């Protein structure tokens, strides 16, 4: 089933738009606090389309993600009592409980790990605020964890450059379904281990 190829083509068109960095910054900020789409879906094609801009795009994505994480932290810190009933009734209930367990087990390291986990990062930012985690360690862990993730994506796209685009185009549906399978397995394991 060709689901990812049309999305990939659209992402490549958006990546070449003159306002694409603004859209990437907005997406990155929103994803860290309330929006469900990760910025990798824009960062990867943008870095692929403009390999010479890959590091700048990774920095932009990192900093706006950290700022969005601080907004998520504020949501958890100021509004947890109001949003907790909704959160516990939503599809984020199990990830939220898992994030709380990770914070109890690993403390601030959970924020770093969150950058690479199948649990949405916004769940960790809101949970950190709800737990009133010290702000400086939270911010530093966010900067390192998110930066590591986004610079890895940018590095892979920069390394692959123009020669990677036709290869990705040919195999994007297989890659997309493989990522879905990995996320599903990760989510299942996360749920089973709680």
* Number of H/I helices: 8
Helix percent reads over 70%
Question: Rough shape?
Answer: globular
Structural class by helix and strand composition? mainly alpha
Low-confidence regions: none
- Strand segment count: 0
> What is the terminal-to-terminal distance?
33 Å
What does this structure look like?
- By secondary structure, the chain is mostly helical.
- The chain has one domain.
- It is built from 8 helices and no strands.
- The chain starts with a helix and ends with a helix.
- 37% of the residues are buried.
- The model has no long low-confidence stretch (mean pLDDT 84).
Task: Tag the structure with descriptive keywords.
194 residues, mainly alpha, 8 helices, 81% helix
Give the topology, please.
Elements: H1 4-15, H2 20-31, H3 40-49, H4 54-89, H5 93-106, H6 109-114, H7 121-130, H8 135-192
Transmembrane segments: 57-80, 101-119, 131-154, 175-193
Organism: Tepidimonas aquatica
Keywords: Membrane, Transmembrane, Transmembrane helix
């Amino acid at each position: 089933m060709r689901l990812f190829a049309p999305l990939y083509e659209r992402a490549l068109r958006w990546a070449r738009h003159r306002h694409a960095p603004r859209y990437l910054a907005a997406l990155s900020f929103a994803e860290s606090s309330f929006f469900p789409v990760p910025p990798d879906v824009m960062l990867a094609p943008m870095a692929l389309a403009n390999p010479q801009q890959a590091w700048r795009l990774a920095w932009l994505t990192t900093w706006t993600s950290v700022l969005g994480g601080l907004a998520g932290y504020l949501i958890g810190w100021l509004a947890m009592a109001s949003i907790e009933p909704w959160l516990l009734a939503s599809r984020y209930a199990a990830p939220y409980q898992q994030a709380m367990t990770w914070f109890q087990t690993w403390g601030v390291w959970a924020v770093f790990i969150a950058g690479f986990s199948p649990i949405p990062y916004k769940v960790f930012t809101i949970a950190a605020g709800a737990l009133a985690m010290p702000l400086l360690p939270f911010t530093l862990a966010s900067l390192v964890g998110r930066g590591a993730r986004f610079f890895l994506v940018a590095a892979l796209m920069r390394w692959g450059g123009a020669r990677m685009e036709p290869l990705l185009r040919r195999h994007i549906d297989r890659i997309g379904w493989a990522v879905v399978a990995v996320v599903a397995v990760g989510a299942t394991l996360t749920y089973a281990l709680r």
